[in-house]
Specification:
By secondary structure, the chain is α/β, with parallel strands linked by helices. It is built from ten helices and 16 strands. Bound molecules: threonylcarbamoyladenylate (TXA) and magnesium ion.
């Protein structure tokens, strides 16, 4: 059931049940991070492999030391600057955090989400919330309560409705090696913003054998409809005669008789607006029974980088 009543969420959570919560990035499937039972329910509902760890959501930076230890100075600096906000830190795990949350890792992912309803919820609870994005493993992340309902209908007693997600793309994940920041996943907090605070960052190099983060799997965030990514939609369409085509463009529509549905992410060409609309646009395109979706490569700066990362993972690779 979709509701704005946090008491309903609290009732479920203290019974080790899972509820959907809004955040400023995407909706999450939340449970008591200190309850193995609750965390197990998250994994089975999401059909997520147990080797893929979850993010722990806390109410403020003051709680950080109950979740993580040996916190590097640059991690503290980033947390102070960007929390509550779309930054997830990967840090040494506190012994109290159950291994099921971290998938057996000695590191834990943690963030303070920036959504008033969820902050209020976290403030009222006596425990932090483990939460992955509220979509079945591999599919497009939800940016509205309705998206969550479409995925999980009767499997969730409570979907806490916080409106459409303000940022619309997942948090940026930053870990540390020798106390220096390493970006694991591009996201709603831009690299430019992070580098302004702590100087140049490195990027985690993907190892295909053991994906550390499922967000780093090559096909993830994927629509059911076959999706392509190109710099030039107009000429790309010519290679698909007689197909029902939907297009996803940054700011300018394309005139072509084969296009049945167009999603423009930002008429004004604003990256923030485009990121906010990205997943909802993909959800809508996916519902139109199209033969293919063709997406345009976004401008390669700021949030455009994170959007291109997600679009790369949405396409079918042969
Ligand atoms: O914006 C977000 O981060 C949303 C909202 C709900 O907070 N959550 C989210 O969770 O995107 P999820 O589970 O869909 O993606 C979290 C990513 C995964 O790729 C996971 O593997 C990675 O974080 N992760 C979690 N714990 C980790 C750890 N200890 N080491 C490395 N990666 C970790
Ligand atoms: Mg996810």
């Amino acid at each position: 059931m979709i509701t704005k009543n946090i008491n309903k969420a609290i009732t479920e959570l203290i019974q080790d049940n899972v509820v959907a919560i809004p955040t400023e990035t995407v909706y999450g499937l939340a449970g008591n991070a200190f309850s193995e039972l609750a965390v197990n329910k998250i994994f089975s509902l999401k059909k997520r492999p147990l080797h893929n760890p979850l993010i722990v959501h806390i109410s403020s930076i003051n709680e950080l030391e109950t979740i993580a230890i040996n916190i590097p100075d640059k991690a503290k600096k980033l947390a102070k600057k960007f929390w509550p906000g779309s930054l997830t830190l990967i840090l040494d795990k506190h012994p109290d955090v159950p291994y099921i949350v971290t998938a057996g890792n000695e590191k834990v992912a943690v963030r303070v989400p920036n959504h008033p309803l969820t902050l209020e919820l976290l403030n009222q609870l006596r425990f932090p919330l483990a939460a992955p994005s509220a979509n079945p493993f591999g599919s497009i992340s939800p940016t509205s309560a309705q998206h969550v309902l479409d995925y999980f209908s009767d499997q969730l007693e409570v979907i806490l409705d916080g409106g459409p997600c303000e940022n619309g793309i997942e948090s940026t994940i930053v870990g540390f090696e020798n106390n220096e920041p390493i970006v694991y996943r591009l996201g709603a907090l831009t690299i430019e913003e992070i580098e302004n605070e702590v100087g140049p960052v490195k990027f985690h190099v993907k190892n295909n054998q053991t994906p550390i983060a499922p967000g780093m799997l090559s096909r993830h965030y994927a629509p059911k409809t076959e999706t392509f990514l190109t710099n030039n939609i107009k000429s790309f369409i010519k290679t698909f005669p007689n197909k029902k085509i939907g297009v996803l463009v940054f700011s300018k529509s394309i005139d072509d008789s084969q296009i049945i549905h167009t999603e423009i992410l930002s008429n004004q060409g604003k990256l923030e607006e485009a990121a906010k609309n990205l997943y909802a646009a993909l959800h809508r395109l996916d519902e139109k029974n199209l033969d293919i979706i063709i997406a345009e490569i976004m401008p390669d700066l700021g949030l455009g980088k994170a959007m291109n990362d997600r679009l790369q993972r949405a396409i079918k690779k042969n």
